[in-house]
């Protein structure tokens, strides 16, 4: 994966497959403590303890189309390369929380990339799901909440290409003030 | 045009868009639309499926083709990612492999607009090894 936003897009596909209706993404940047953390929380079907132990194994997958499952293992490797870690807490029928910690200053930490584009694609591809994206830095906080957005849009769909462009602009403009 | 910075801006843009939309023919018949599915699993994303998907959404809208672009999981053709499945109304769906922006452009211009087949089709009888 080229950047963190692509990792996030990949991992959130797991929440989509777990039939979650709410996904919360939180990115926290703390330069003083040298922390760059990403947390993804969903209310999908969850996993048993046994499965949780195996999910970061690249040769474990629940799919039948192939025998490898690289999404989580690639993200784990990426985090560990910077001295960070990846943790998963899950409960069947309740949901899953994924926490990834990177060293902010480490040269191996991938850049965030086009997170606005990723959020907009996720929102438009799953119009029935709700997403909350919270980004905190020393300069402030930005929250993108699809529930608020859908209220504003009323009967215009988030899948409309023009709306997608506006949403991307909205996220980027706000992120630029805090990153 | 001023940039969208807040939900109030978004509402303003939406209202402007809506007034234009009402003039256009409103049809929600999915059968009449071109359906494109972009494979977006780890393999697809790592090979650039995000750029291809953004390109397809933007360009089909610009070129006035009524399309629904959605995501799908891994179809098992990891060696040929990014892959897309194009379903033209009244035709069998076709899967194209190794789709970069250039190929996507060719697929729109030749296959979607004129029904002309282009290189890179993954045959339906292809099976992954068990």
TrEMBL record, chain A:
Signal sequence, start to end: none
UniProt GO molecular function: ATP binding; protein histidine kinase activity
Residue ranges occupied by any Histidine kinase domain in the UniProt entry: 1-106
Keyword Transmembrane helix among UniProt keywords: no
Nucleotide-binding found in the keyword field: yes
Domain of life: Bacteria
Catalytic activity: ATP + protein L-histidine = ADP + protein N-phospho-L-histidine
SUPFAM superfamilies associated with the record: ATPase domain of HSP90 chaperone/DNA topoisomerase II/histidine kinase
Keywords, ordered alphabetically: ATP-binding, Nucleotide-binding
EC number: 2.7.13.3
PANTHER family xrefs: SENSOR HISTIDINE KINASE (PTHR43065)
Protein name: histidine kinase
Top-level taxonomy: Bacteria, Pseudomonadati, Bacteroidota, Bacteroidia, Marinilabiliales
UniProtKB/TrEMBL annotation, chain B:
Domain of life from the UniProt record: Bacteria
CDD domains: TRX_Fd_family (cd02980)
SUPFAM superfamilies xrefs: Thioredoxin-like
InterPro entries, A to Z: Thioredoxin-like_sf
Protein name: NADP oxidoreductase
Organism, as annotated: Labilibaculum filiforme
């Amino acid at each position: 994966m080229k950047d963190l936003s692509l990792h996030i897009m990949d991992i959130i596909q797991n929440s989509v497959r777990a039939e979650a209706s709410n996904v919360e993404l939180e990115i926290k940047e703390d330069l003083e403590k040298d922390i760059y953390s990403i947390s993804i929380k969903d209310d999908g079907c969850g996993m048993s303890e046994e499965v949780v132990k195996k999910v970061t194994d690249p040769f474990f997958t629940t799919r039948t189309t192939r025998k490898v499952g690289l999404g989580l293992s690639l993200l784990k490797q990426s985090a560990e390369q910077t001295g960070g870690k990846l943790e998963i807490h899950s409960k069947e029928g309740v949901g899953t929380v994924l926490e990834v910690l990177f060293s902010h200053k480490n040269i191996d930490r991938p850049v965030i990339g086009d997170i606005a584009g990723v959020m907009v694609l996720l929102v438009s591809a799953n119009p029935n799901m709700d997403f909350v994206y919270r980004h905190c830095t020393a300069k402030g906080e930005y929250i993108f909440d699809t529930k608020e957005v859908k209220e504003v849009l009323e009967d215009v769909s988030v899948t409309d290409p023009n709306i997608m462009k506006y949403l991307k602009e909205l996220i980027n403009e706000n992120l630029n003030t805090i990153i | 045009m001023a940039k969208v910075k807040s939900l109030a801006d978004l509402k303003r843009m939406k209202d402007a868009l809506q007034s234009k939309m009402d003039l256009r023919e409103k049809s929600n018949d999915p059968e009449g639309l071109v359906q494109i599915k972009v494979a977006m699993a780890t393999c697809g994303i790592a090979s650039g499926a995000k750029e291809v998907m953004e390109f397809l959404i933007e360009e089909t809208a610009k070129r006035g083709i009524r399309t629904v672009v959605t995501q799908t999981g891994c179809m098992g053709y990891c060696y040929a990612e990014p892959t897309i499945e194009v379903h033209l109304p009244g035709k069998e769906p076709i899967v194209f492999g190794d789709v970069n922006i250039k190929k996507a452009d060719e697929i729109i211009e030749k296959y979607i607009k004129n029904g002309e087949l282009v290189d890179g089709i993954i045959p339906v009888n292809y099976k992954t090894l068990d």
